[in-house]
Amino acid sequence: MQKTVTIFGAGLVVKPMVDYLAKQGYNLVIASRTVSKAEKLAAPHPNATAKQFVATDEAAMEDYIRKSDLVVSLLPASLHVLVAKKCIALGKNMVTTSYISPQMRALDQQAKDAGIIILNEIGVDPGIDHMSAMKIFHHVQNNGGKIVSFMSYCGGLPALDVNTNPMGYKFSWAPKGVLLAAGNSGRYMRDGETVDVPGKDLFSHYWLVDVPGVATFEAYINRDSLPYTELYDLKHVKTMYRGTLRNVGHCETWFTLSRLGFFDDSVFHDKLEGTVSQFIAEHLLGLDKNADVETALADKFGLPAHSVILKKFGWLGFFDDSPLLIGKGSACDVLTSIMLDRMSYNEGERDLLAMHHEFVAEFPDKTQNITSTMVDYGIPDGDSSMSRTVSLPAAIAVRMILEGEITVKGVHMPVLPNIYMPVLNELENLGITLIERFNDV
Question: What is the pLDDT of residue 181?
Fold first, then answer.
């Protein structure tokens, strides 16, 4: 009997997974709140079916899981644990591309007892970053060396030929998720010292990174890097850093947006009307709604009249009669709507996914600087790089689980050689490659 995979979610990154798994011949059920999105994904494939599904309908969720051989959760990360608990109860394997939360980690023994795997962090970041790094870690260890420094960077950006707005950024995945992440705190280790970066200082703590074959970018910390010392089993590491790449000029602008309060999602406004300028004046600056916002911002943040930040804010419509695009929501919702309107990809434009690892390895007779770099572009009028690099690793893992190539049970991320090597090899066959460079010091 042909195996059935249920995919919860039909967002921006799902299409390459659907295409890959449909080609493998599995029966696919694409369950989404917006059934029209699921229908569009299913339409080219006779073995794919679209279904309307509201994640709060737990009875429907159980029914889908019961009828599946494997479940992929591409729902909001907060719902993964609910799906996982039902998969455990029903003895069904599960795959997600999201980070393992403490609540998900706590299900490890239950998943083992149920005889299933819950494979997480099998996208691009997290995902390809883990797998490409583990390949180098194990290579060094197998050759008698030890890793003393690991710095990893990843960013999804518009390709340089379509970098056509002053913000230097376009949205290839959930816009509000990008903005909410802008308030995350971070932590890393450098030369044996722990560095804490509060969320309010995230964009003031950055440096420049040269990525071979692409460009120079800004890098800022991506959450807490310290747990990866243990997850990667790096007993001798003194520097551990995982960062996000953005185009030069990004951090200073987003730092000012943060200080202004635009990443705050805690205050909900039931009724929003008027202009963006009036919203900023009244709700973020505490001024009369018709105040001169450009002058007020320049004074508040010490910006000269010729500041590029002010010019970017002017482009976003902060200082003119640009109307609010939503009738209710938080400051974060307001900014999300503005950016989605002005910073989305146009038809036919391609994105860029850049990933760059820097390792320092010590051997008994030498020290090596090692890099592993992935530069991947979206397909014009086709799949974005973000959608391919997020969903194809997960799709490959789904196939491997269903075909019995992955047999480990419990809650996992792809750090085992029998998971990451086949996935990396198949990604290379699909045109997603990493270039490794080894240089003796």
Answer: 87
Q: What is the pLDDT of residue 395?
A: 98
Nearest to 254 by CA among 309, 295, 302: 309
pTM beyond 0.90? yes
Rounded distance between C-alpha atoms, residue 171 and residue 342, angstroms: 10
- Terminal CA-CA length for the chain: 57
DSSP-derived secondary structure for 248-317: TTHHHHHHHHHHHTTT--S--BS---SBHHHHIIIIIS-S-TTS-HHHHHHHHHT--TT-HHHHHHHHHT
Query: Would you say residue 130 lies in a domain?
Result: no
Decide if pLDDT at 411 tops 90. Answer: yes
Residues 119, 19 share a domain:
yes
Q: Is 140 helix (H, G, I), strand (E, B) or coil?
A: helix
Domain housing 60: 4-125+385-432
CA–CA dist 320, 338 (Å, integer): 13
Domain count, the chain: 2
Comparing C-alpha atoms, which of 352, 368, 351, 371 is closest to residue 360? Answer: 368
pLDDT at residue 265 in the model: 93
- Residue range 221-275, pLDDT digits in tens: 999 999 999 999 999 999 999 999 999 999 999 999 999 999 999 999 999 999 9
Mean pLDDT for the stretch of residues 206-210 = 98
Task: Identify whether residues 319 and 390 lie together within a single domain.
Answer: no
The tens digit of pLDDT for each residue in 263-272 reads 999 999 999 9
DSSP output for 354-420: EEEEEEEEEETTEEEEEEEEEEEEPPTTS--HHHHHHHHHHHHHHHHHHTTS----EEE-S-SHHHH
182, 389 contact by CB (below 8 A): no
Is 251 inside a domain boundary?
Answer: no
Encoding tokens for residue 104? 């998900």
112 and 44 part of one domain: yes
Domain identity same for 53 and 121: yes
Q: Using 50, 70 and 90 to split pLDDT, how confident is the model at 92?
A: very high
* Structural contact between residues 214 and 354, judged by C-beta atoms closer than 8 angstroms: yes
9 and 88: one domain? yes
In a domain, 34, yes or no: yes
- Catalytic residue numbers read 125
Look up the CATH number of the domain holding residue 93. Answer: 3.40.50.720
Q: Would you place residue 439 in the very low, low, confident or very high pLDDT band (cuts 50, 70, 90)?
A: very high
pLDDT for residue 1 is more than 80:
no
